[in-house]
Design goal:
five-stranded antiparallel β-sheet, alpha+beta, 13-stranded mixed β-sheet, disordered N terminus, Glycosyltransferase, 33 strands, Beta-galactosidase, Chain A, domain 5, globular
Length: 664
């Protein structure tokens, strides 16, 4: 926590004099007036010591000193003042040839992002508050030379303050630890920006695809007080953007050292609580039965006549979880629900074309004929888990097998020559979104179908997709548009890509299998870069902070949707598998962090409801930064959520070795 003393610790791996590399400006604001800005001059006052001065600012004194590779900045004031200090570290990197990383928010130049989301299409210069990022770091790598530079905040960030309004020039209502980091271009050279408190420029991104005016926050520095900040600046050489992401994740993980949540509930306790979602949300009034888990209100958790096969509803995966768990616990209610859902989908869950009716709102006037490779794949995945489980119990379902062969045949017809699958299409195979961003999701059911049915055509198709993923996703470090509610760089693209190679490893041998292990490892660093290595601070009165929520182990969603969630499903299996295959203990350590952090922190239960109306309804849109997905902002949830997928994700996370058991 900043106790109001400013120390910036900078490890600079070069022989250039520190002061020549830094441009600094301090802003001073009085209430009701626009801030005044003062460019600061660096003057040597001794061996490895400087003072930052301005001819027009006499009351604020900034001193800097060097000890080894560390630099210390002290700011003091002779009167009460509201200040913001921003710095630019000037590099020799070519802006045109440099790709940037702000983990969990910015990848390369965010060129996949839609208009209205942060990208270099909007501006060359960006700085954002640190709590938007999975690590409070900004960096860039010039891929022509391999040279890179990163700036990492090194203070303990434990306290935040509320700023009103949410953008513009804001005097904070208390003490905050949050600063900002960013990057920009000056004379075609890259600079990395860092400062305290936070600045967001040229825009503040607080609502999806809406760029609001910039923000400059001010902290109150009283007479006689001082402020400390700490940063670390690293320079080095690497091969490309992929290796830069890898090295940066390893570095930040080792510096930030995320630890498990020690008071997490047990798996048995967590699952028993999650069954309350199943028992309170079950719907059977229409021809398709399921769990009401999409587009409901946090304050009510009402039942809506909406069922969705994959994506945010995950009705078939939830049905399998309820059935499997119900039988293990002799809970006939859950067993009946699970069987009822599968029976209803067998009779009424398919279009005449053979595809799943993947999203049905029985209160809507008509049913759209929009089909996605992701939802179809997630539906087949869930059914194959169900069929494999049933067969092992001595129960076979020939009609379901026929249905799965039919839908798999449809998928094979859709596969492009390069191995990719269209993202969205209709019953007549007309593609409305031919991009291959969702292609990795198809590998899971294809490999499972090969194992279950023993038909090599499914493996042949999966291999083609794996080749596409290698050449177009992994080799290009271009993980995009796997989620269905955004068109941008996103976590789920890297997540599904690494998982696809994990599944390929179960159906291949020798050199080919080793190649898939390597590819999974390469994609994995992009996956990990979305997950928080630290705990963002909250202000008093922000519910998430008041209940002690820790962000470590939670993942940002995408460039377009800047909130955290519990999207993990079976990925801890992948992490622990890679930890063993690649002899990297950090992976299994971080898997433990993720599991402990997600398992029960916000699981609604008696006396711990976390502003959710019913027990077992795990929240979805967790707003951990200055972000308003629709309502309430930082420290709260959006008022509409989809516990169907959050419950399915956590349940699968806690169903260890599910994939390995399927492929036995």
């Amino acid at each position: 926590m900043i106790k109001i003393k400013l120390i910036a610790v900078l490890i600079v791996l070069s022989t250039v004099i520190f002061a020549q590399n830094i441009e600094s400006v301090i802003y001073v604001k009085s209430a009701g007036n626009l801030a005044e800005s003062y460019d600061l001059k660096w003057e040597s006052i001794g061996d490895n010591q400087w003072t930052l001065t301005s001819d027009n600012l006499k009351d604020v004194v900034i001193n800097a000193s060097k000890k080894g590779n560390y630099y210390k900045f002290d700011i003091k004031s002779d009167k009460d003042v509201n200040i913001n200090l921003q710095n630019r570290y000037i590099t020799e990197l070519s802006y045109d040839k440099t790709n940037f990383l702000l983990p969990g928010f910015w990848y390369r130049k965010n060129l996949r992002s839609s208009k209205g989301a942060p990208s270099v299409k909007e501006s060359n210069n960006w700085t954002v508050r640190e709590d938007r990022l999975s690590s409070p770091l900004s960096g860039g790598v010039d891929e022509s030379s391999g040279k890179y530079v990163t700036v990492l905040r090194k203070d303990k960030l434990e306290k935040d303050a509320i700023g009103v309004p949410v953008y513009g020039q804001v005097i904070l209502n208390g003490k905050t630890d949050l600063g900002s980091v960013g990057f920009g271009e000056k004379n075609n050279k890259v600079y990395l920006q860092f400062g305290y408190p936070y600045q967001e420029a040229p825009n503040t991104y607080v609502r999806k695809l809406i760029l609001s005016p910039s923000t400059l926050a001010f902290t109150k520095l009283k007479k006689g007080e001082s402020i400390e900040l700490n940063y670390e600046i690293r320079t080095g050489n690497t091969k490309n953007f992929e290796s830069f992401v890898k090295e940066t994740w390893l570095y930040t993980y080792d510096v930030l050292e995320p630890k498990k949540i020690e008071d997490a509930l047990s798996t048995a306790e967590s699952k028993e609580l999650l069954t309350k979602f199943y028992k309170q949300s079950f719907i059977d009034e229409s021809d398709l039965h399921g769990f009401s888990g999409a587009h409901i209100r946090t304050a009510v958790c009402e039942k809506r006549q909406i069922v969705e096969v994959g994506f945010i509803g995950r009705v078939l995966l939830n049905a399998f979880n309820a059935l499997e768990y119900g039988e293990s616990k002799n809970d006939e209610e859950l067993v009946k629900m699970g069987n009822s859902i599968f029976d209803s989908y067998l009779k009424h869950g398919f279009k005449p074309s053979g595809f799943f009716r993947e999203y049905v709102d029985f209160d809507a006037p008509y049913e759209d004929d929009i089909i996605s490779i992701r939802r179809q794949s997630e539906g087949v995945y869930a059914v194959l888990l169900y069929l494999d489980y049933e067969k092992k119990q001595g129960r076979e379902h020939k009609e379901w097998e026929v249905k799965m062969k039919s839908i798999l045949a449809n998928m094979l017809k859709l596969q492009h020559y390069d191995g990719s699958f269209p993202r969205k299409f209709d019953s007549y195979y007309i593609e409305s979104d031919p991009s291959g961003g969702s292609s990795p999701s198809a590998v899971l059911p294809l490999t499972m179908a090969y194992k279950y049915f023993g038909d090599k055509k499914y493996l042949t198709s999966a291999r083609k997709t794996a080749k596409y993923l290698e050449e177009n996703i992994v080799d290009k470090s271009d993980y995009f548009s796997s989620t269905l509610d955004a068109d941008c760089e996103d976590k789920e693209a890297s997540f599904y890509t690494a998982t696809a190679f994990y599944y390929m490893s179960f159906v291949t041998k020798g050199k080919e299998r080793k190649q898939y292990i390597q590819l999974a490892g390469r994609a994995n660093y992009f996956v990990l870069s979305w997950y928080y290595n630290w705990d963002v601070p909250f202000a008093e009165g922000q519910m998430l902070g008041d209940v002690g929520f820790k962000t470590r182990g939670w993942g940002n969603v995408s460039v377009e949707n800047n909130h955290v969630d519990v999207f993990i499903f079976g990925y801890l299996e992948v992490l622990r598998w890679l930890a063993e295959e690649q002899k990297e203990p950090r992976f299994s350590e971080f898997a433990d962090v993720i599991e402990s952090s997600m398992k029960s922190q916000l699981l609604p239960r008696k006396g711990h409801m976390f502003d959710i109306a019913k027990e077992g309804y795990y929240p979805e849109v967790v707003q951990h930064t200055n972000w308003d997905y629709g309502h309430f902002g930082k420290g709260f949830y959006n008022d509409i959520f989809a516990p169907g997928w959050t419950v399915a994700s956590l349940w699968e996370m806690m169903s260890t070795e599910r994939t390995e058991k399927f492929f036995e």
